[in-house]
């Protein structure tokens, strides 16, 4: 065991975990953040996507020590009242069915819009191609990404 200092959702934490422990387990088990989901455990489904220094990462394949000194943001860190443009778009368009993949979809969208505030369908499909949704809400996800981009630019109320 080793003590790791992490900044998660704007708060500093110290956690005891062995080097190599998946950041996902630290987020969920040590910090109680259940937004990032365990899906595949090998970084291919996107259910756990969170941000590290604003970039999308997969905590299931990111070692806890890789997060030291970096800013980690989970879906819980976006907004307490679902006021983030991406969250508002998801709610407005009723994107989620079962909802399991949605935190990862949302965080991938936040990362996309930070890099590209006006993505076209190809950009959206590329950015979210590795976020698997078993319910098949891809069409609504794409619509929500476009709406979130407009909300972020102040073009939609």
From TrEMBL:
**Which domain of life does this protein belong to?**
Bacteria
- Signal peptide span: none
Please give the PROSITE patterns that the UniProt record associates with this protein: 2FE2S_FER_1, 2FE2S_FER_2
InterPro entries from the xrefs?
2Fe-2S-bd, 2Fe-2S-bd_dom_sf, 2Fe-2S_ferredoxin-like_sf, 2Fe-2S_ferredoxin-type, 2Fe2S_fd_BS, Beta-grasp_dom_sf, Diverse_Oxidoreductases
What sections of the sequence does the record tag as coiled-coil?
Answer: none
Domain 2Fe-2S ferredoxin-type per the UniProt entry, residue ranges: 4-78
Q: Does the keyword Iron apply?
A: yes
Write the protein's name.
(2Fe-2S)-binding protein
């Amino acid at each position: 065991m080793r003590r790791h200092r992490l900044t998660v959702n704007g708060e500093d934490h110290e956690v005891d975990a062995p080097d190599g422990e998946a950041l996902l387990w630290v987020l969920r088990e040590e910090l109680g953040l259940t937004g990032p989901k365990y899906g595949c455990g090998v970084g291919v489904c996107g259910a756990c996507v969170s941000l590290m220094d604003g970039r999308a990462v997969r905590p299931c394949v990111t070692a806890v020590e890789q997060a030291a000194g970096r800013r980690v943001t989970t879906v819980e860190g976006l907004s307490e009242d679902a006021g983030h443009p991406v969250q508002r778009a998801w709610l407005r368009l009723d994107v989620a069915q079962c909802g399991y993949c949605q935190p990862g979809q949302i965080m991938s969208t936040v990362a996309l819009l930070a890099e590209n505030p006006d993505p076209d369908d190809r950009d959206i499909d590329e950015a979210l191609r590795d976020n698997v949704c078993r319910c098949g809400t891809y069409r609504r996800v794409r619509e929500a990404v476009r709406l979130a981009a407009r909300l972020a630019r102040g073009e939609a109320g």
